[in-house]
């Protein structure tokens, strides 16, 4: 077997070398609509940096590729979005060699388990990533609301208030992160406690390219705190960013109220497409999305890096 060469791409060969790998496009970014389903460097109007894009080459042929994404001001990548290969051994070595560390996110069609070919493609990537040290896989539903879905009626049970004080928002986030059903939040809590999870959430919301005054704290008619929601703009896309209900108010279906309010708020701001996601295991929130008319666009598997 020929020796394996692993290297980052450079601007001159980035796109041609990246797409020299033969891949049927059954899973991953390839299943998205244009222009989200293609690799292009920042210098050519895309979103990927050659230094964050890597290939494994054997006998002059690209046999594995990986590309990380990050915002324009990020100093380190935020997510591994592309991971494809024709040589599993090379793919595992590629992930082990790359110096970057970010969650791996694999996109899958909604019926991926029912198609043996798609299921095999997904399983191959997930298994290779786990062999390379990625762990704690979480499967999420990803939704896309459009006007054709219909605008759900506001239940009218809650009062929503903007909160200019970050300390008050952080205090509410600490409450809603207690015993959370969200896998990412639970992982952060297990790693560094509720305070760390809340701070990470706040940092992410402040990173998003949307006004801070979109954030809302929710209260009952008699002034009891219920939770928090933050519609945001993420990667240029309107998104239901955060929804959380404090422990003592759970079981009343308030997650739906928060979701509906966030939807109305984004529509008022001109949104014609709204993305959202929740863990498959978070059944109450998944039920709220179904009730609000959000169709499942695809599934996402997210794995933590070593």
Question: What does this protein structure show overall?
Answer:
- 30% of the residues lie in helices and 28% in strands.
- The protein is an alpha+beta fold and 306 residues long.
- An eight-stranded mixed β-sheet has the order 1-2-3-4-5-12-6-11. Strands 7-8-9-10 form a four-stranded antiparallel β-sheet, sandwiched between helices.
- Helix 2 links the parallel strand 4 and strand 5 (103-108).
- The mean pLDDT is 94.
Please name the defining characteristics of this protein.
single chain, 306 residues, alpha+beta, 8-stranded mixed sheet, 4-stranded antiparallel sheet
Kindly summarize this structure in a few lines.
The chain has 306 residues and is α+β, with helices and mostly antiparallel strands.
Topology:
Elements: E1 4-8, H1 14-18, E2 53-58, E3 61-69, E4 79-85, H2 88-97, E5 103-108, H3 116-131, E6 135-145, E7 159-161, H4 166-176, H5 183-207, E8 216-219, E9 225-234, E10 237-245, H6 254-268, E11 274-279, H7 283-291, E12 296-304
Parallel strand pairs: 4-5
Antiparallel strand pairs: 1-2, 2-3, 3-4, 5-12, 6-11, 6-12, 7-8, 8-9, 9-10
Helix pairs in contact: 2-3, 4-5
Molecular shape: elongated
Helix content: 25-40%
Taken in chain order, the helices and strands follow as: EHEEEHEHEEHHEEEHEHE
The separation of the N and C termini measures 28 Å
Low-confidence stretches: none
Category from helices, strands and their pairing: alpha+beta
Main sheet: strands, sense, barrel: 8 strands, mixed
- Report mean pLDDT, rounded to a whole number: 94
Radius of gyration: 20 Å
Give the amount of beta strand, in percent. 25-35%
Give the helix tally. 7
Largest sheet: spatial strand order: 1-2-3-4-5-12-6-11
User: How many E-type strands?
Assistant: 12
Oligomer type: single chain
């Amino acid at each position: 077997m020929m020796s394996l060469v692993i290297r980052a791409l450079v601007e001159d060969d980035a796109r041609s070398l990246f797409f020299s790998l033969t891949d049927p496009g059954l899973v991953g970014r390839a299943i998205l609509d244009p222009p989200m389903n293609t690799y292009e460097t920042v210098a050519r109007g895309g979103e990927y940096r050659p230094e964050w894009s890597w290939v494994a080459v054997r006998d002059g042929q690209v046999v594995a590729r990986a590309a990380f994404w990050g915002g324009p001001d990020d100093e380190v990548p935020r997510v591994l979005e592309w991971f494809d290969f024709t040589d599993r051994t090379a793919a595992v070595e590629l992930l082990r060699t790359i110096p970057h560390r970010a969650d791996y996110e694999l996109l899958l069609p909604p019926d991926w388990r029912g198609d043996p070919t798609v299921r095999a493609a997904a399983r191959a990537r997930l298994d290779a990533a786990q062999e390379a040290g990625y762990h704690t896989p979480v499967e999420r539903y990803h939704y896309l609301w459009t006007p054709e879905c219909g605008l759900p009626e506001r239940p009218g049970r809650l009062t929503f208030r903007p909160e200019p004080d970050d300390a008050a928002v952080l205090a509410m986030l600490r409450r809603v992160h207690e015993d959370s059903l969200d896998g990412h939040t639970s992982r952060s809590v297990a790693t560094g406690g509720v305070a760390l999870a809340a701070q990470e959430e706040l940092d992410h919301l402040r990173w998003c390219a949307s006004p801070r005054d979109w954030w809302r704290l929710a209260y009952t008619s008699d002034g009891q705190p219920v939770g928090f929601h933050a519609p945001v703009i993420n990667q240029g896309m309107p998104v239901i960013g955060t929804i959380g209900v404090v422990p003592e108010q759970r079981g009343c279906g308030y997650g739906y109220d928060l979701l509906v309010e966030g939807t109305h708020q984004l529509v008022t701001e001109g949104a014609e497409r709204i993305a959202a996601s929740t863990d498959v295991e978070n059944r109450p929130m998944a039920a709220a999305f179904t009730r609000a008319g959000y169709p499942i666009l695809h599934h996402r598997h997210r794995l933590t890096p070593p």
